[in-house]
């Protein structure tokens, strides 16, 4: 009865997941009803009869909706999406803020009150609450409209994924540490110019931009090393989300007008280089990489929590 098993698993996805024992009881009740209907209306229990009974019984969303209690503000099966879509929107929202900073603007959607570390950190919960409220409002209207459309669960992100072995986790940590060491040496003692004669203006800007990028890569690799170390003892996708979020905060600080001149001075960069389009392009590309990774890790984390996978 593979069809019935998949049907029950789909219904489980749309049922409230706070009480697993109650959910199991509901699923046993539904299974019993489907089998009884198959035998009563089709004479026997076989794959064809069960498939017809399932079709008559209703879609997983509709069946789950019969077990709602007290007319919820957000339907239980939609609550499965609440934090996942909030997390995705939060990651994109932070990314838009960072990209705005890269291009010299103060934030996206609404301005930051300041660009120092405390102001940036205080903006994180404000951004999350805004995104949480927006997603909640959308799901509320979907519930009130009694919509049963199946929103994407992104299960293909984790379909073939397995928990990394201890050896692989140690390898990732070593790779991050080696990368951090190499980038530190590179921006401290390099980069080097191998051309003949004096440096041209564009060569100076290119070297300065590369040096700034090495410094940023060093910071991101240090953060990733800490995350990898934590994952050796307790593997969790959440640590990667935290790592990427801290990486965005680090990039925020690096491009913030409060800290960018100090970083440029520490790296002995030419003042004309720090706002050059070449450096802006490098910062933009690095920001996109971190943003995309954060979005993917957020999706993987919540999908693994709300979708039952074998």
Structure description:
With 310 residues, the protein is mainly alpha-helical. The chain is built from 11 helices and no strands. Helix 5 packs parallel to helix 9 (237-255). The longest helix is centred in the C-terminal third of the chain and has 33 residues, at 201-233. It is elongated. It starts with a helix and ends with a helix. The model has no long low-confidence stretch (mean pLDDT 80).
The total of beta strands comes to: 0
Gap from first CA to last CA: 17 Å
Tell me the number of helical segments per DSSP (H or I, 4 or more residues long).
11
Strand content: under 5%
The major beta sheet can be summarized as: none
The ordered string of helix (H) and strand (E) elements is: HHHHHHHHHHH
Low-pLDDT residue intervals, each spanning 5 or more residues: none
Quickly give the structural class.
Answer: mainly alpha
CA-based gyration radius: 26 Å
Determine the fraction of residues in helical runs and give it as a percent range.
over 70%
Shape: elongated
The mean pLDDT is 80
How are the SSEs ordered, and which strands pair?
Layout: H1 2-14, H2 20-42, H3 47-57, H4 60-65, H5 76-102, H6 117-144, H7 166-189, H8 201-233, H9 237-255, H10 260-266, H11 277-306
Helix pairs in contact: 1-2, 1-3, 2-3, 5-6, 5-9, 5-11, 7-8, 8-9, 8-11, 9-11
């Amino acid at each position: 009865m593979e069809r019935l098993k998949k049907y029950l698993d789909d219904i489980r996805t749309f049922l409230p997941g706070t009480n697993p024992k109650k959910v199991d009881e509901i699923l046993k009740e539904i299974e019993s009803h489907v089998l009884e209907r198959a035998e009563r209306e089709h004479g026997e229990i076989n794959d064809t009869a069960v498939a017809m009974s399932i079709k008559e019984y209703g879609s997983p969303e509709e069946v789950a909706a019969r077990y709602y209690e007290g007319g919820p503000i957000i339907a239980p099966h939609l609550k499965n999406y609440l934090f996942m879509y909030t997390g995705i929107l939060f990651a994109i929202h932070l990314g838009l803020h960072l990209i705005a900073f890269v291009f010299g603007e103060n934030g996206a959607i609404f301005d930051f009150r300041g660009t120092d570390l405390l102001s940036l950190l205080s903006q994180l919960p404000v951004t999350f609450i805004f995104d949480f409220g927006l997603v909640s409002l959308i799901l509320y209207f979907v519930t009130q409209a009694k919509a049963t459309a199946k929103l994407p669960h992104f299960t293909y992100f984790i379909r073939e994924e397995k928990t990394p072995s201890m050896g692989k986790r140690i390898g990732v940590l070593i790779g991050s540490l080696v990368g951090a060491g190499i980038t530190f040496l590179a921006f401290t003692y390099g980069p080097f110019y191998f051309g003949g004669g004096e440096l041209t203006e564009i060569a100076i800007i290119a070297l300065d931009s590369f040096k700034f990028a090495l410094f940023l890569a060093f910071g991101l690799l240090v953060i990733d090393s800490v995350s990898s170390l934590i994952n050796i003892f307790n593997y969790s996708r959440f640590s990667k989300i935290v790592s990427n979020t801290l990486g965005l905060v680090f990039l925020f600080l690096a491009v913030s007008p409060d800290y960018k001149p100090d970083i440029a001075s520490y790296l002995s960069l030419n003042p004309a280089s720090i706002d050059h389009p070449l450096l802006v392009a490098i910062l933009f590309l690095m920001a996109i990489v971190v943003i995309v990774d954060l979005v993917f890790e957020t999706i993987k984390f919540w999908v693994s929590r709300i979708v039952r996978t074998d």
